[in-house]
Amino acid sequence: xxxxxxxxxxxxxxxxxxxxxxxxxWLGWGKDRECTFAGALEAALAATEHPCKYSDIMGLTGLxxxxxxxxxxxxxxxxxxxxVGEFPEEIAAIQKATGWQFRDEVLLxxxxxxxxxxxxxxxxxxDAGKPVLAYEERLNMDVVYGYEDSGKTLLLRDYxxxxxxxxxxxxxxxxxxxxxxxxxxxxxxxxxxxxxxNIAVRNWRRDPLPAEKGKYWYGDAALxxxxxDLGQVDELTEKERExxxxxxxxxxxxxxxxxxxxxxxxxxxxxxxxxxxxxxLKRAATLYQQEVNLLGSVFTEKNAFLGPWxxxxxxxxxxxxxxxxRGILVKAQKIEMDAIAETEKVVTVADV
Length: 352
What we know:
Oligomer: single chain
Shape: globular
Number of helices: 10
Low-confidence stretches: none
Radius of gyration: 21 Å
Helix content: 40-55%
Structural class: alpha+beta
C-alpha cells in the first residue's frame, strides 16, 4: 500500500452504517461557484493531495473566458446548458493542465441509464478516499462523498441542499459520472496558462458547435445571437418567452460568475510572465474587471436585467427592460473584444 493511498484512506470515516470522506466542502448557489462542474470538481479535489481551486479550474479550461449561446433548430429554441462546463473539451483541458485523469460515464439521452449498476464502483472509489462527481436529477453536477447501508444510499454535496447532504439511491442519479483516477505530472504554470489563453482566443472566434437538435454559438457570435434573440421577445409565444427569460438570466448570471473567475485567474497568473506579455495580461485582467463591474451593477439597479435577484418575472419583462438588457450585453461584447485582443498578444509575443 502506497503512502498516498494511506493518506487518502485516512480521510475516510466510518460510523455505524455510514461511510464518508472528510474534507469535502458543501456546495451552494451565491458562493461565486455558479458553474456546477467547476464547483463540484473543486469540492471533490479538496479532499485529495492535489486540490485545484475554482478560479483555476475555470481559467485552465477556458470557461472563465467563454460565452456560449444555444439555439435549437427543432424542439426547444434555447437551452440552459449554454454555460455548463462538463463538455468533453473542458474535461480534457483540466486533465491535461492538472495531471488528474478521469473516468467519465456519459449516458445522456438513454431512456433508462440504469445508474444503479455503478454503485459498486462508486463505493470502491469512496473507500479509496476519492469522491465521485455525479449529476443529480435536475442535471446539476454534485459530489458523492459518502454512503450508507453498504451503498444503498449515497450522500451527495448538492447545490440546493447547502450543508445538509442530499441522500439518494444510485438509481436516482442523473446520467453522468466522473471518477477520479490517477494523478500524473501537471503542465508547468507557464504551459498551462498559455494553453488556457489559446482556448480563450479560439472560443471567441470559433464556428458554432453542432448539437443533436441545434447548435452552440461561441464568443463574439454567441453574444450577437443572444442580443438578437432578446430583440424578438414580442414575437414569441408565452412558453417560448418564459424559456428565453430563464435561459437568458441563467446565462447572464453564469457570465458574471465566469468573469469573476477570469480576473482572479489572470491576476494570479501574471507572475509567470514577463515583459510585454506580462503587461498585456494585466491589461486583459483590468478589462475583465470592467466587465465584472458592468455586469455586477445589474444586481442593484432597478430593471437593468431581470432575474431571480430582481424579484421580477416575465410579466415585468417590458420593452424598456429588454432594451436595457441588450444594451448591457452590447457593452460587455465591446469589453470582451478588447480583452481577447490583449489575450492574443500574450500568446503571440516572443517571451511566451
